[in-house]
Amino acid sequence: MSQSKHHHHAQPYSLADYGWDEACDHAFAPYRDAGLVPARIVRAERSSCEAVTDAGISHAEIPGGADQAPPTTGDWAVLSPATTSRGPVLHAVLERRTALVRSTASRTSQGQVLAANVDTVAVTVSLTAPLKHGRTERMLALAWESGARPVVVLTKADRCADPQQAAAEVSEVAPGADVLVTSAVTGEGLDTLTAVLDGTIVLLGPSGAGKSTLGNQLLGEDRLTTGAVRDVDGKGRHTTAWRELVPLPGGGVLLDTPGLRAIGLHDAQDGLEQTFAEIELLARDCRFADCGHLGEPGCAVLAAIEAGEVPQRRLDSYHRLLRENAYAASRTDARLRAGREATKKDITQHLRATYRFRDRQR
């Protein structure tokens, strides 16, 4: 094994390699005099997290009972340094510039933050499987909503009869995003990719879309595990079991996420508007301000579909994702209402008990 394969373990990284900049420095300022340490979260479990500091990797305890949201991969954090009696402890999480959030399958109303402080989201789409535009639109909505910049990366171009035709088709569903054709086998498009992806980069896409292979290309070494894709359905097995943060040789940081089977939208109204920008633009010319584009008179969107300017599939996808987003929001509202009712009930019961107790004392 060549020496270069080992360099990332031997070479001590600094926080700057992980994306620390002036804005982080400014956000950390209030903690500096207290002897606390800046860090970036590489991986977080329920009660502990792995964080990188200028002194190397730290395993820090996450104190229980804290009312703050749990940290996630990519967070900038503040650690209390280790003492003789205990290891480092997570003290605070700095405000996130961007956050990639999906709704959870569980019954909690909070979304699940997949990654924080991401600059570029590479939405990976394999050219070996039939293109599923609905899935690409969903991932783009998630990416735009996060505040990061989406780039659509078409992988495995060497196994596609007409990659440029596929790219043209995908560009239609990705207004405002760069669409790049790449092949890890022939090296096509990788230089452009490296030039376009910057800052903290997250690879988003289903298992088998070639995320780990792409990550290894960016890293210049086979660091991320890749798995064979089943021929039957083009699905890969989950080879990435956790999210991890790795500095790239040319600058920037790669955040590797597990292939996401279900990406539910969570409060992604802005992201949807950006993903379906042409529909939003047309909607301004609808006769009614609250037009639902479902058959109302004077609907500019339906007129554009009649004229063949916008495919019907695009509007159907837009409606479907809007419904899903509204449902996620209503679940959140219903739970907040239920929570408020429960609190009110608790207070009433507590008051009644107090009065009963007082009556007995008389």
Automatic annotation (TrEMBL):
The keyword Nucleotide-binding applies. It comes from the Bacteria. Binds 1 zinc ion per subunit. Zn(2+) binds at C286, C291, H293, C299. Its EC number is 3.6.1.-. Keywords: Cytoplasm, GTP-binding, Hydrolase, Metal-binding, Nucleotide-binding, Ribosome biogenesis, RNA-binding, rRNA-binding, Zinc. It is found in: Cytoplasm. GTP binds at T155, K156, A157, D158, G205, P206, S207, G208, A209, G210, K211, S212, T213. Its main location: cytoplasm. Residues 116-261 form the EngC GTPase domain. Residues 108-263 form the CP-type G domain. Its cofactor is Zn(2+). It is an enzyme of class 3 (hydrolase). One of several proteins that assist in the late maturation steps of the functional core of the 30S ribosomal subunit. Helps release RbfA from mature subunits. May play a role in the assembly of ribosomal proteins into the subunit. Circularly permuted GTPase that catalyzes slow GTP hydrolysis, GTPase activity is stimulated by the 30S ribosomal subunit. Monomer. Associates with 30S ribosomal subunit, binds 16S rRNA. Belongs to the TRAFAC class YlqF/YawG GTPase family. RsgA subfamily. This is Small ribosomal subunit biogenesis GTPase RsgA.
